[in-house]
Inverse folding.
């Protein structure tokens, strides 16, 4: 650190009369020419997605944007109720729930499939995929772990997002190995686990993002980006038709004191 | 609160086999058919934007997504360095800097123009706009307040985003009263303030968003959404080519103890 | 920035065999010798509080630590439910509600009293305090603003914390001008506002902190520190006897779709 | 959820004229009578600590409160620079760095020792502790994992906090099995790892907190509470003698653009 100190970046830099981003001229090459979803992809992947890739990518973001009164949406609304002066705080509070349990499945599923595929030649037919899926699910079960992307508390038979996203990826020629393995897991897991579970939407989104070549360690980030838009919608609605105060009072007025030693 | 307790929403709801969002069927009507920027607009405005509106809106998001090593980007990277297990925490830390000073200009400027226009018939020619701008800037000056959207630490003569965004809005027939008043402020403020300042990019974004009819109290939210994509890019780069440790050590190794009573 | 770059601090610094904090040797002078509340005071005020000051200061922190199922406590619990892997995220989410509305009164009240006292000789008897209070409340009313620290949604007649904290400050010889003005406001405001409101606990805490000489712009910070302890208690209880899932389901299961155009 | 809906808690509840916390009357039993550190312990452990326990507990909090320009302190200051209107956001941003890497050692070490001791009779002499430590370190090494609490980037020979905290615990009769096992690890690890590393301060704090009977899954929470006080000190100093702008400019002005394909 001294004379030679430097901080390398391929993202935004600017001079008095030019702003550059990703090696492009922001105003001449990007504004009005690149969609927001496209840019988000580009910022992480360092390459502009094709129109087909953009369509699949944005379908994923749309699928993940809002799920109504999730714990994260309620947390954001309660924070906005308490601190209406800080929209950024309410949004951040909502995103902080984007962890392992409610929003992590996208990343967990993408990583799981990615690891299962690593160092292998992908099968060339459904029988091959089924055999691989069976091997993978059996191994996971043997380790006492769970297979991510299976089951959903509300969509107990089928998650409506799953076939639709697979269809979009298929139309665009982007139904790659992660989606194919995930589908095969959907066909074979019952043999190992003893019961049929639906492939959930968060999981299929992870598989689709992995097929787009996005880094699997950052898939949670795309779920968070999608959720940022959803939370903005939640906060706009909280201004228009608030529920935060009622949610809070419902809990507080039904508080029951319990002896700490019980 | 009791039997009749209910929490109204127009956003996401779901049943065992359907997911609805904004009154649409998520899988049949939205996925693969609506872009992510379009959906973000829709979630707040409760109406689908036209293609022209979407182009202006996404140009704004693209303009605001990343400005390189801003305090927020560095904060996000340092948080990721400390807690690499929690991507959501690093993203949230970055967004928490989206307050009054570095990211607030978009909202401040949109609100300022909105209030100036409230209850008036918009002028019909440049002379009329100039007269209104002069009145507004003079009044602001008299109150000892500053006019938001003027000046930039780096782009001292012209912010390259300003003419480009005005051009895009103009092409799309969306150069409305907020942008026109902002442009007029750009022409006349020197008469009042005694020096010529550029209209900055954050300000022109606020004016453009206000012209799209988005609620001015939430404009900061769109800057935050744009920044969420930029921060994701920053965190992806921090994984690929980290600077957080160097940034931290540069500060820590140059720490100098000062007597607290000095 | 270059050779001469330096970052001054009076807080923590360390060498291979010593850690210094506030100009003290951490291990020889502080650990085991200074209480945690004392250190928190010292870190902001840059001087060690006296035992009397510590007692008042800690009584304030104890008073503000936990108020049960507040919006911030529920937000922290919901975040922990969603992301149990990140205790720091749940704690941060809870603190983010420490804004203008539910937790800001302490700071608002301290600042209000501070500004009212600035540049004046404090009165020497109750009649003098009452006259000043009357003047201040009348002026606030005339500006259409509200007097911070008056009224409480639950403690409609008297907030039990108010007389107790004044008593502690009095016992310790620390009932200074901020508390005295606040008490006088309690006596006279009915003449101006037309109704009698209790002096609330958050307000009296702000007055007491201001009397301790702590910087009024940072009083919210002490409320946040107190709340950090309370939120830790809430999260410990969420592990032991969870309510987050029930709180979430209560809202989600009672969601009612409303047409966005209504 | 309906008639019978209830949310149990042993923490704060209130009625019109009483506030209860932990089964105590807040104003009669706690304010002015319980220190802040005592209360923080009580809120998690559900029992009031003894004076000896309080002394060890507060020594730990004091030890962990501030380490100068850590990544978390810098992140908090940069956030405050960007959004000075939201002290809670700056504090939250700083705490969000309290994850696995810089602040997690306390919890990791406490848990590690706790698991090693589970289901065993603690040894009765140093030879017994050394044998157990050897077994534990050998097993950890065999699994390819690292032993938490060993080594420090600055205190390469001895962390000055370690002997002091052990001394305080010893004086108070609270040098329990976790500390004793940790000390034994300090004596024997060189035999297994091939080099001598110091027992670090964060680790010894984790051992001491575990010996106090605090839940090991929440030890990170106490490190966060301690850090909340330290961050408040950092933010107070940022107001008084700011370094955020210089830290930001040091990085930004030394940014070097790198082709994304390199």
């Amino acid at each position: 650190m001294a004379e030679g100190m430097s901080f390398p970046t391929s993202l935004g830099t600017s001079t008095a009369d030019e702003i550059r981003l990703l090696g492009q001229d922001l105003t001449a090459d990007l504004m009005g020419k690149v969609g927001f979803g496209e840019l988000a992809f580009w910022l992480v992947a360092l390459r502009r997605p094709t129109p087909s890739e953009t369509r699949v990518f944005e379908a994923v973001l749309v699928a993940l944007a809002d799920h109504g009164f999730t714990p994260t949406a309620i947390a954001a609304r309660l924070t906005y109720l308490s601190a209406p002066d800080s929209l950024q705080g309410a949004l951040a509070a909502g995103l902080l729930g984007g962890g392992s349990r409610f929003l992590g499945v996208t990343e967990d599923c993408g990583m799981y499939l990615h690891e299962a595929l690593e160092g292998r030649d992908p099968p060339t037919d459904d029988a091959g995929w089924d055999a691989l899926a069976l091997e993978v699910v059996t191994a996971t079960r043997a380790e006492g772990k769970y297979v991510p992307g299976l089951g959903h508390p509300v969509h107990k038979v089928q998650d409506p997002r799953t076939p639709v996203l697979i269809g979009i990826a298929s139309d665009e020629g982007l139904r790659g190995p992660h989606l194919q393995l995930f589908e095969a897991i959907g066909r074979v897991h019952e043999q190992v686990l003893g019961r049929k579970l639906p492939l959930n939407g968060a999981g299929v989104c992870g598989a689709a993002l992995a097929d787009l070549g996005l880094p699997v360690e950052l898939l949670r980030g795309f779920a968070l980006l999608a959720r940022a838009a959803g939370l903005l919608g939640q906060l706009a609605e909280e201004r228009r038709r608030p529920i935060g105060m009622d949610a809070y009072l419902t809990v507080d007025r039904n508080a029951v004191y319990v002896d700490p030693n019980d």
User: Anything to note?
Assistant: The longest helix of chain D spans residues 219-240. Residues 105-217 of chain D form a domain with the Cytochrome p450-Terp; domain 2 fold (CATH 1.10.230.10). The mean pLDDT of chain D is 95. Chain D has twelve helices and five strands.
